[in-house]
Design goal:
Elements lengths: L12 E7 L2 E7 L5 H12 L7 E6 L3 E4 L27 E4 L12 E4 L12 E4 L5 H11 L3 E3 L5 E4 L3 E10 L2
Length: 174
């Protein structure tokens, strides 16, 4: 049965992001960023992320994906309001990517690959890889360690091989 992001109780929402380099499981912070969690669930439930890629990778910092254009410039056609909270940006935390305007996030997200606490209370953290999920952390490490080259802006973050998001599957934990 599909999950209705508008009506279902998402306090136990989980997701599995299947990639060309393995899978990552996520649990969400509904109590910290409910609108962001609902937005991610709505997009994932419609298959929005299926077939996209991680287009920006900075080892020791983060992997970023969810851009429909594949280059960091695309969005879903709308923005959501930021829900900054006290969740520290540490390895395994998923947060919304955005432009300069705090309320400019829409669909792009990043998963921290290291301590990025300088982002705390400036980006909306809305989930994390569960503690002890060694397979998910191994996939995160594998993606973060791919060879990268210069992006259009000159940052060494563009993967030299495509790191595809095959499918995002939602479930409610029992």
């Amino acid at each position: 049965m599909p999950i209705d992001a508008e009506k279902d109780d998402l306090t136990k929402l989980r997701a599995q992001i299947e990639t060309t380099h393995g899978s990552m499981n996520l649990e969400f912070l509904m109590d910290k960023a409910p609108n962001t969690v609902r937005n991610f669930a709505k997009l994932a439930g419609k298959g929005f992320y299926d077939g996209l890629a991680f287009h920006r990778i900075v080892k020791g910092f983060m992997i970023q994906g969810g851009c429909p254009k594949g280059d960091g410039t695309g969005g879903p056609g709308y923005n959501i309001k930021a829900e900054f909270n006290d969740t520290p940006h540490v390895k395994g935390v998923i947060s919304m990517a955005r432009a300069q305007n705090p309320d400019s996030a829409g669909c792009q997200f990043f998963i921290c690959h290291g301590d990025a606490r300088f982002l705390d209370k400036n980006y909306t953290a809305f989930g994390r890889i569960p503690d002890g999920d060694t397979e998910s952390f191994a996939t995160l490490d594998k993606i973060a360690n791919v060879e990268v080259g210069a992006s259009m802006g000159g940052e060494r973050s563009k993967p030299k091989q495509r790191i595809g998001i095959t499918k995002v599957t939602l479930s409610i934990a029992q």
